[in-house]
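== Fold encoding ==
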Amino acid sequence: MKKCVKLGMTAAFAAFAFMGCKEKKSSDSQITLTVWESTQGPDDFIKKAGEIFEASHPNIKIKFQNVELGDSTGQIALDGPAGKGADIFAAPHDRLGSLVTGGHVLATANAEQIKARALPSCVKALTYDGSMYGYPVSAETSALFYNKKLISENEVPKTWEELAKWTTDFNAKNPGKHGFVMNVGEGYYTIIFTTSEGNRLFGEDGSDRKNSNINSAKSVEGMKFFQSLRSVLDVPASDLDTATADGAFQSGNAAMHITGLWNVVSFEKAGIDFGVTSLPALPGNSTPASSFSGTRAMFVSAYTDHPAEANEFAAFLMSDEMQKLRFEITGAIPSINIPLESPYAEGFLKQLEYAFPMPTIPEMAMFWESMNNASKNIWDGADVKKELDACNAAMTGN
């Protein structure tokens, strides 16, 4: 039986109360709002949400156009000034700094009401220089998945040292299988090893543009422990990408795996009986390791000819009805406080308590390639301090 998990606060608003919507008169001139979103779920959501919105706004037509999440920031910078971009587009919150400094997005309309409605982590993620931009439509983080056929719930390690020991024993008893897998060359995941005792990328609030903290003493210590895990997962970084790690868990050949809610459906379809819980604690820590939290947002383009209507539709996507619809279609955690029927939501919500938003400053654009390279090299035996110093230099120039 699925659990009903309540997000954050109690929903206290009717579907449109927070945005002051009113039905448009059919005599108003017809306008079209172009919305950029990704395929494989988010597209279906926008299309269905558009149909519902159009029913009460007959003068507005919602037009879906496929621009993938990772491409929208660059695309709006090109298409927006040319007058052929979207009115509203989806983007991850870590692109916020580039979007704001580039002048590509408008600030959130009725921001105080949106802030009161959204999860605190989403509000923080979409705040830049004291102002809020965009409308959060989902929240995400990574967590520890475990295959119940290979490891019982009471065996799931609470610390990384325990995970290493359990994995060593499991590997010895189960040739051809892995006690633990993860993508060791992706900074989205390996960042967790740099977060001991509150150590945070670009400082506590993610805005220290001169010091990334990626090469701090705590980061070096944590990444040395990460490197030590090669002894229990003796596979080169080139053979431990996302597809390989996901495939090992999906095929039933890995007991534990670090990934996100986006993999729930594929693991279920594969027939894996699995659970989700918070990450193990790093050495010397008593709470789960901190992970990145991400917020997917709908941004109103600074180039739109219809800012009021665009803001209204973006806010509509945060209504109870639309957030429930989005969860049903995509499986992503809502950005607002509504009940969820899911056996996995509790694990992600628990990890979100220890997660921190990916920084939004422009320097974050250099994080991914530099940290990915450093992670791969460290896993394969490179000097930890030198790799992290190079990563810091790439991001800050220091």
Q: What stands out?
A: The longest strand covers residues 135-147. The longest helix spans residues 42-56.
